[in-house]
Design goal:
This protein is α/β, with parallel strands linked by helices. It has three domains: 179 residues, Rossmann fold (3-Layer(aba) Sandwich); 180 residues, N-(1-d-carboxylethyl)-l-norvaline Dehydrogenase, domain 2 (Orthogonal Bundle), CATH 1.10.1040; 103 residues, Transcription Regulator spoIIAA, CATH 3.30.750.190. It has 20 helices and 15 strands. An eight-stranded mixed β-sheet has the order 3-2-1-4-5-6-7-8, sandwiched between helices. A hairpin with an 8-residue loop joins strand 6 and strand 7. The longest helix is centred in the N-terminal third of the chain and has 20 residues. The structure holds 1,4-dihydronicotinamide adenine dinucleotide (NAI). The site of 1,4-dihydronicotinamide adenine dinucleotide has 24 residues, from helix 1 and helix 4.
């Protein structure tokens, strides 16, 4: 990433935050903590009171946790001024709008504010879904308008997407990047396109999960356990959607899908629509995929323990699962190595890492029943593995496969025979989405990865993840998904395609 020499907004310039709701109050606290005078504006007196109370409570919490001294907290609080409609606003250098998600209302509020503040003030919006370009075009100086997209809670989450509209002046973008950094945030720059970085690149995390549930391959409980304990994600997709709220998550998916002219990659799911229609919105309504409230317990998931492994043969190169050879040796299970097509033979039963084909398709290719296992973030530290077998795999064969992973200290979940299983297809689609965002100049490779680790806590940025498992593996998974489904949803990004071909040439 090229470091810009732009300087942050000077501390003697004030910041106006329009909207004293959840986001506005959080952003006001961030700017005041950095040392700016902040004018917090809202059309509702009650909202202003609530916003100030939110800041007070948050500062008290920081004092209690010894993150800030009491007198510094008082100084931060004193810098936030509730500003009614006619209040004087002095030396304003930046306006951050955080009001209702409606273009017309945002344009009106920013236009009014532009007339009240210094002419050189930068106007920014915290919108998560509207076009910054469209907003800017309706304001007097489109060059001075950018997106400044904070994540909730703004005081805690470090990521800020600095959204460049078509007409945004590069110096303005640089100033906002430097300002976000001075405010101890992690800024990433992106173009104003649907979902910006995070809300676009994260779509497959939800979309593939919903697809697996739609096709009855697993349950929300098992899927979450596999994605957390095998894939290394902080939260499973179902519990995360329950936390975000299905109404909100569905609306974001829908807006990205519509923003991309109904590209099937972002198509909303009937599984989620059912939940929204039923009012099962997740934690906030007491029920989503899971039930919440006193005495509610999740259905325990079924783990398969399997039989004792006596002999293992590793045939050929296991690719992204190569670490398993060492782990099996370390578990004192005798391993023989032989040439072959990347299989682990456990007491005669063939196991293979999923490559995007179903176990049924792999069995046809190999001429014998095969049990597939899922991609793990790290085969050494992952505590769970998922297996899948075709309908002709016997329980004894599945037991042999499970026994190997049990011997490696892992819990074993069995999924239906879905192409690409759970972690592999999700990670492949995340990498592909990130690759497309880079290909289309939405953001740099560095910023896409920083956005996904900083904004949604992924254990690795998608592009770093793709490189770790190797890009040809990722492209292969998507190609196989494409032939399994015959849908345009599973198409390899030109970025990924080009790098896969370059690697193929390099390896002769
Ligand atoms: P909120 O509903 O908590 O607060 C909005 C506030 O704006 C209310 O206090 C309301 O009285 C005030 N308001 C409405 N119209 C106004 C106007 N014309 N002038 C002044 N104040 C006005 O909303 P929230 O959640 O804080 O969201 C605000 C913005 O931030 C939206 O654009 C949203 O998409 C975006 N955002 C929200 C995130 C979230 O997780 N809640 C995360 C990132 C962005």
């Amino acid at each position: 990433m090229v470091e810009s020499t732009a300087t942050a907004l000077p501390l003697d310039r004030a910041v106006v935050v329009i909207g004293a709701g959840t986001m506005g109050a959080g952003i006001a606290e961030v700017a005041a903590s950095a040392g700016h005078v902040v004018y917090l504006c809202d059309t509702s007196e009650a909202a202003l009171d609530r916003g100030r109370a939110q800041i007070r409570a948050s500062l008290d919490k920081r004092v209690a946790k010894a993150k800030i001294a009491q007198h510094d907290a008082e100084a931060v609080y004193a810098r936030v001024h509730a500003a009614g409609p006619g209040a004087p606003l002095e030396r304003v250098g930046l306006v951050i709008e955080a009001i209702v998600e409606n273009l017309e209302i945002k344009v009106a509020a920013l236009r009014d504010m532009a007339a009240r503040v210094d002419e050189d003030a930068i106007l920014s919006t915290n919108t998560s879904s509207l076009s910054v370009t469209a907003l800017a075009s309706r304001l007097p100086q489109p060059g001075r308008v950018v997106g400044m997209h904070f994540f909730n809670p703004a005081t805690i989450l470090p990521l800020v997407e600095v959204v460049r509209g078509q007409a945004s002046d590069p110096d303005v973008v640089d100033t906002i990047v430097a300002t976000a950094r001075a405010w101890k945030k992690v800024p990433v720059v992106c173009q104003s396109t649907p979902g910006f970085i995070v809300n676009r690149v994260a779509r497959p995390f939800y979309g593939e999960a919903l697809r697996l549930l739609l096709e009855q391959h697993t349950t929300p409980e098992t899927l979450d356990a596999v994605m957390r304990e095998c894939g290394g994600f902080r939260m499973g997709p179902c519990e995360l959607m329950d936390l975000i709220g299905h109404d909100v998550n569905f609306a974001v998916t829908r807006s990205v899908w519509e923003g991309f002219f109904h590209d099937p990659r972002y198509q909303p799911s009937l599984v989620q629509k059912q939940l929204v229609d039923a009012g099962w919105l997740g934690r906030k309504s007491g029920r989503g995929f899971f039930a919440y409230g006193e005495g509610q317990e999740r259905t325990p998931i079924q783990d398969l323990h399997g039989s004792i492994t006596t002999q293992v043969v590793i045939e050929g190169d296991l690719g992204p699962a190569a670490a398993l050879g060492t782990l099996i040796e370390e578990a004192n299970i005798p391993v023989h190595y032989a040439p072959g097509r990347g299989l682990i033979r456990v007491d005669g039963v063939a196991l293979a890492l999923t490559d995007g084909r179903s176990a049924a398709a792999r069995s046809v290719e190999l001429g014998e029943p095969v049990v597939l296992f899922d991609l793990a973030l790290d085969y050494r530290t992952s505590t769970r593995i998922a297996l899948a077998g075709a309908v002709d795999v016997s329980p004894a064969q599945l037991d042999s496969a499970a026994g190997l992973f049990t011997a490696l200290g892992k819990k074993v979940s069995v999924l239906g025979d879905a192409a690409g299983m759970a972690v592999s297809r999700t990670v492949a689609m995340l990498v592909n989405e990130a690759a497309d965002a880079v290909q289309q100049g939405i953001a740099s490779e560095h910023d896409v990865d920083a956005a996904m680790t900083g904004g949604v806590n992924y254990p690795l940025g998608p592009l770093a993840w793709g490189r770790k498992v190797e890009l040809p593996y990722v492209a292969g998974v998507i190609r196989h998904l494409s032939s399994a489904y015959g849908e345009d949803r599973y198409r390899v990004s030109p970025w990924l395609q080009a790098r896969t071909q370059a690697e193929a040439r390099a390896h002769g």
